[in-house]
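QA checklist item 7 of 12: single-chain prediction sanity check.
[x] sequence parsed
[x] length recorded as 539
[x] structure emitted
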Amino acid sequence: MNAQTHDIVIVGAGIAGLYALIRAQKQGLKAIVLERGSDIGGTWYWNRYPGARCDVESFDYSYSFDDELQQEWTWTEKYASQPEILAYIHHVADKYHLRDGVRLRTNVTAASWDEQNLLWTIATEENEHFVAPIVIMATGVLSTPKIPDFPGLDEFSGEVVNSAHWPERGVDFSDKRVAVIGTGSTGIQIIPEVAKDAAHVYAFQRTPSFSLPAQNRPLSVEDNQAVKRSYREFRERARNSMLGAWTDTHDTSALEVTAEEREAEFQRLYDYGSPMRFASAFNDLLTSEQANQTAREFVSSRIRERVADPNLAERLIPTGYGLATRRLCIDTGYYETFNRENVTLVDMREEKLEQITARGIRTSAREIELDVIVFATGFDAVTGTLTRMQITGTSGTLSEKWGHSPDSWLGVMVHGFPNMFVVTGPGSPSVSSNMFLSIEQHVEFISDLIADSRAKGYARIEPTAEAEQEWVAHSREVSDGTLMKDATSWYTGTNVPGKPRAVLQYLGGVDVYGAKLNHIQEEGYPGLERAAMREGAAA
């Protein structure tokens, strides 16, 4: 086997992979990033569908490791669009000369651990092999789309596109009949945009989502200057918050204030436009059913105000789960789009999608003729990309282990898989946080651990089974105290048949989690077994 050797192999050239490359290069390590896409950018390369936009405010959703970078980049909107975020990532890659360290169009299919020589061998679809003592999985939490296997899909004579693999050429919806299947965060962004040009849009909804108006706006020179003058304090405040971004809310129960005070606070945050701020308006919205009910009633009332047809409004209002126990969305004109004559809701609770035909979609009630079908059906989140690879450790594969339970140590390492690091894996704040900050937390922790181990002559790093299970137990104890544990969503893996049910993110807060990482570093990495290279191992 003709293998290429490196000190570190990084899988994925998104926000996490590029920062991991920066840190590796600063340590003087020979590192390579393997990326299956034809360009860098990760999530923001693949998800280029119309209306794609971040739901974390731009100033928060950016790197904090270099003040020069912070000062030179100027954001144009409160919530940055996909093209602007991708341009920012490209700017970072060019500023730090990262492109030469990235191999594009390289799809990793397997990784196997050599215990004798303490090396990982990474195999690709292109039949290349890369060998390194350390592998960093920076594959992202929303990188493997979930595509339903509807009968008859191959028979459809029109165009089929997936939101997570949007054609670079774009899609022309002018005067076409379009089905958008899925009304989660992605569908909520796509539907209003498609409706502007399409002859008719059929929005196929299985489970309604709660969504707030984004209240997006251009950022002025003064807005940018104000943050740039105080970036140090701005970032420190974010790191010491629960969600990794400042939420401007009070540590008070929703049930300890008057109804008028509660309504006023909900309205203030609703008018601001931020899912993070609204979901943390009071400290018990995710732990008390009664408190959560007050938030659900408020948002449901706003939906009724935004939809002209009262019966249609009720069909768009979620029932059966708590607000923010599934992803709380933000939108630009989503509910108002259903007031248009060329938009129809197809409620799959009322009429089942039975088959895709050559001409369109047949439901239990009718056949809808279509020119384009758009899948916005979500992801096999957090673990899905890694379990689809053949990753073999000391006693089996990762897919076998996570097929029982997505256990990890802090969401950053997995017992049985030495020297393999995961950025924002299961059991870390990940999707319940500002991902940029959580990515930086992980990459810096990983980088410092690698540097400390090399300085002390350690060649093998692995969490103990006991340390892993202690973290799993703690993480579950935290999530069991919330309403999220009962929700059916990608947060709990229940959107994918056969996937074990578990809250995939740590809900104790970015601040608490960050303090845990710092404590572990200060105490010399308890919970890890580190060992030197064995005698007789290959150099």
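[x] summary fact logged: The two ends are 17 Å apart (CA to CA).
[ ] second reviewer sign-off
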